[in-house]
């Protein structure tokens, strides 16, 4: 059966009109609920940003930024639940129909009764259609304009509040930037990784009894706790205010090695150790002479502070240590500079003995030049002279028979040592030719000086007249 018409246009039933009014009312109420949820959440987050500003979140309980999000979500959920309850109570068919009856001057219960019997049969449907035609006479406007206005004003007011709350939140994110970071990253705030790491800049070594300064970088903090512990003592904790993310602590006098750790309540720095050192000195110098290989001498230690008489070409191996960390160690002599290798507190190097002279020390540690130095290295370089050989007897030319024997007394010496001593003989003919060359070894590894006697048996030389 076709839908009933009035004046050629289809008639809308009263039930459809009531449902349309309900849908618009539900939309307004739901929009107001969403606006209220946004407003509550934004205001709570803005309040949290203000509360946590100026690094106050560090001193507050760790879970607070996370709990703030829980509260904001719970407030939003409560607002949505309230909106849903309001829709459930105010946007029912009966409630909307009652409002339409009041505003359209209908008999109380007329519309509600028609809705109840609308599905009971043709007569009920006809009554519902007739009532719908009557309600539609006013055009497509609201059936309960006062109800819709109240709902619209409520939704508009809540939307305005939500916009204002979002503006407050936007202002808080810039005006309380550090507090907003804690709100925006609650897990990092809990773990203490929200701000840059704490760092401690302390001198590695300080002379015992002197003052020193420890510099602390604590960006984003208002105050920190400095924990210090001297060797043999317990930990001491002191609270200090931080200005512009920096803190300088003048300390001392230093009596023993002292460790420092800085904490902001959430995170801690690495441990910095300041070592107490005595007045820096260079000492414990060891000198070892490594002789040229041809001398066949084993390396020998050389006394520090004494004149070292060394053969030319000897390598003087130098080692020692200092009481402080070394930057440079040098030996200088008349414009010559020998740089030794510095490795922490130790140093070593090599000096080749080429010319005599005095080498003076200079050294620089982490705290500056070192004044307490070893004695000068004084070298007396001994040149390698040629071996000396003498025939002590006979001292003059002699006339001997062709079958006679010539007794010889000999001496040889060398400043470093004789490898061997040999007698070399030959005969010269009347024509000047050399013949009968012969070498007889007399001594082996004879030391720095050797003397001995031998004889030349002429009978075995085959001498001829005139030789």
Name its key features.
single chain; 467 residues; alpha+beta; five-stranded mixed beta sheet; 36% strand
Briefly say what this structure is:
With 467 residues, the chain is α+β, with helices and mostly antiparallel strands. The protein has 9 helices and 23 strands. Strands 11, 12, 13, 14, 15, 16, 17, 18, 19 and 20 form a 10-stranded mixed β-sheet that branches. The chain has a 5-stranded mixed β-sheet with strand order 4-10-9-6-7, with no helix packed on it. It has a 3-stranded antiparallel β-sheet with strand order 3-5-8, with no helix packed on it.
**Class by SSE composition:** alpha+beta
Q: Give start-end ranges of low-pLDDT stretches.
A: 5-9
Please tally the β strands and state the result. 23
Tell me the major beta sheet: 10 strands, mixed
Q: Helical element count? A: 9
State the distance separating the first and last CA atoms.
168 Å
Mean pLDDT: 83
Percent of residues in β-strands: 35-45%
Shape: rod-shaped
Rg, alpha carbons: 56 Å
Helical coverage, percent range: 25-40%
Topology (SSEs and partners):
Elements: E1 5-6, E2 9-10, H1 14-52, H2 56-59, H3 64-90, H4 93-103, H5 110-117, H6 122-135, H7 145-175, H8 177-184, H9 186-191, E3 199-201, E4 205-207, E5 212-217, E6 223-230, E7 236-241, E8 246-251, E9 258-263, E10 272-277, E11 282-290, E12 300-302, E13 308-311, E14 315-322, E15 326-333, E16 336-343, E17 346-352, E18 357-365, E19 368-369, E20 377-382, E21 388-393, E22 405-428, E23 434-457
Helix pairs in contact: 1-3, 1-4, 1-6, 1-7, 1-8, 5-6, 7-8
